[in-house]
Every structure is written in structure tokens, then in C-alpha cells.
């Protein structure tokens, strides 16, 4: 009976991850989410760190369950790096990077970002790794992201690379 339950739960997690959505509460009390102070000329760096056992790490592992399971199936124990930013009173972004041989290539590891929207976390960016900065400039009410020197702008649903 246990293998059936494990397979079902793994399949459900994969469906949630593949659709880029998962239900979770925004951080409140249990996790420190720094409010970024931006001016018109600066940008704030996003620090991705290993934070085992933290609320951000637990959430990241739920959202990236499929990628983590794929790495484990290949015999690897992936490193999960997380970073969070509160952009204003209503907007939080969770940045996640899963590091394993299957998830990383010659261009680096993929960095994924999720935005809390309604009652769930929605994938809004998936890009090759590099430094991530939250810019002071905005498009459609969301700050631009600078990923390894390339500007990503909000199109209303997700971030798009504009160079």
C-alpha cells in the first residue's frame, strides 16, 4: 500500500509543479522577508542561499518537487537555494535554484521565480542562472529583474527577457 500512496503523492506534486502552481500561504511570522528599499538608480541583489528547514526552503521543495525527484532518480541529492523578496505590501517573489548535474549545464543552473497570486504560488520566471537583481524600474506595476545582465520585464503574467 505504501508504494501506491508514495506514487500518488509524487504524481500529484509533479502535476502541481508542471503547471507552475501550488497552494501555500504567503510568508507571515515564520520567515523573515526583507522589504527591498529601491530608488531610481539602484537595484537590490537577490541572495540565493541554502536554508534547510526554513519556510522558504519547504515551499521551494514543494514547488520544485518534480525537479528534485528527477535528480534523486539519477542518484543525486540536489542542493536547493532560495531567496525571497517583498516588493511592496502585496507582492512577494520566491527565487529558487535547484543544483544537480541534471538541472545545471554549461550555462549554469536554472533560476525559477514564483509570485504569490490569489491563493497560490505561480511560476513567473525560469531562466539560466546568474546574479539576480531587482531593479528600481517597473513595467505593469512590477519591478524589472536583471538576470546576469539581461533585463526581464513583467508582461502582466510573467517575466520576459528584453535583453
Q: How far from one another are the termini? A: 51 Å
Helix and strand pattern:
HEEHHEEEEEEEEE
Choose one word for the global shape: globular
How many domain regions? 1
Structural classification: alpha+beta
Largest sheet features: 6 strands, antiparallel
Low-confidence stretches: 1-41
This entry's quaternary arrangement is single chain
What is the mean pLDDT?
75
Helix content: 10-25%
Number of extended strands:
11
- Report the C-alpha radius of gyration, rounded: 16 Å
Strand content: 35-45%
Distinct helical segment count: 3
Compile the SSE list and pairings.
Elements: H1 2-18, E1 21-23, E2 43-46, H2 55-63, H3 65-73, E3 79-88, E4 91-99, E5 104-105, E6 108-117, E7 120-128, E8 132-139, E9 142-147, E10 150-154, E11 159-161
Antiparallel strand pairs: 1-7, 2-8, 3-4, 4-6, 5-6, 6-7, 8-9, 9-10, 10-11
In short:
This protein is α+β, with helices and mostly antiparallel strands and 163 residues long. 21% of the residues lie in helices and 42% in strands.
Describe the protein.
Helix content is 21%, strand content 42%. It is of the alpha+beta class. It has one domain (2-161). The strands form 2 sheets. Strands 1, 3, 4, 5, 6 and 7 form a 6-stranded antiparallel sheet that branches. The longest helix has 17 residues, at 2-18.
Quickly list its features.
single chain; 163 residues; alpha+beta; six-stranded antiparallel sheet; 3 helices; 11 strands; 21% helix; 42% strand; globular; disordered N terminus
